[in-house]
Amino acid sequence: MTASAAPPVAYRPQRGRLLLVVLTWITGFVGAGAAIFFAAQAGDVPGAALSILFALVPLPLIVLMYWWLDRVEPEPLRYKWAAFVWGAVVAVAISLLLEGAAVVWLDVSQEVLVVVVAPVVEELAKGLFLFLTLLRARRIIDGVLDGLIVSGLVAIGFAAVENIGYYAASYFGLGEQGHQIAGAEGATLTFVVRGLFSPFAHPLFTSAIGIAMGLAAGRRSRTARWAIVTGGTVISIILHALWNGSLVVGGPAAYALVYVTLAGLLVSLGCLAVILRYRQIATLWRSLTYIAQRGWIHPAEVPFLVSFSRRRQARIFARRHGGRRAEKVVEQYQALATELGFLHDQVMRGRAPRDGVARTYDLLDRMHALRPELRFPPALPPGAR
Length: 385
Description:
By secondary structure, the chain is mainly alpha-helical. Helices cover 76% and strands 0% of the residues. It is built from 13 helices and no strands. Helix 1 runs parallel beside helix 6 (144-172) and helix 5 (110-136) runs parallel beside helix 8. The protein starts with 16 loop residues before the first helix and ends in a 15-residue tail after the last helix.
């Protein structure tokens, strides 16, 4: 069957995009105000500024790492921004409300609050975004790597705002009366512990939920999906509880043991993410090559749709020979081809959503509509990538 014989397309773009963007920006502004409020607990302007600065310092490197992981099949920016804002604002608000309720209504001790209540509440609050995404926009999380990226962004937002509160409190004063460390020294000490030695703590905890969501997305059985998500959530809570427990009730030896264990898990998680990323690239090569063999795209296009260097080469060529408009067309064509490649792979493996075939034809139609303006470099020699 050729693309020209495609059946009518039933797929329609997802609704609510504008609403998502508006709500995200409103929530983001509210969160910025809340962050300033938390920073003000330091007691003066220098302390508040230092608290915010320390919270921002690790963010560029951490966000850059997640951007690199998401580079093969980038998710829409609005969802990535929504994930960060959810963690920074909504998850923090839910956690503060429920933890405060536990103190007032259940009269839990500080140790129980930190070791038991906080891990349960905070991981459920962060995981709620992934759960809602899986229900509302399943295409955003269609694999383990997507789950890791989205959960990581939620956790990064949560940790950034939480850290502001910790740094402000440390600036105000740490330790028992008469042995307090306060001011810049107190905030810096907390920054070393949270910002330098454990910046990936929250992303590591919530990654279990992300992995579970990615695995659940490929299951057709509702029972299996619930079982996987529940298991991932429990693991996330346990990891968080171990970390908090080592800090509150464990001694130096317990903290060192937990730290080394979680560091090992973090390294393993990083290796898994890198492997999954390179598997994505291999899948895209294989799928688009097969699509080219079917005659849906030209085989000479494939390198310019998969290889990062070739993609960039194609955009530069288009801009030089057709201006910004031609470059934009090539960029759109590459994005559509990427989505097509992964979707077609899911269809071939029997793991595509119900509208997978219709979406496949829709993507082909949108690619073919761009062809009259498409400017690709000359074909590469046979076998070249």
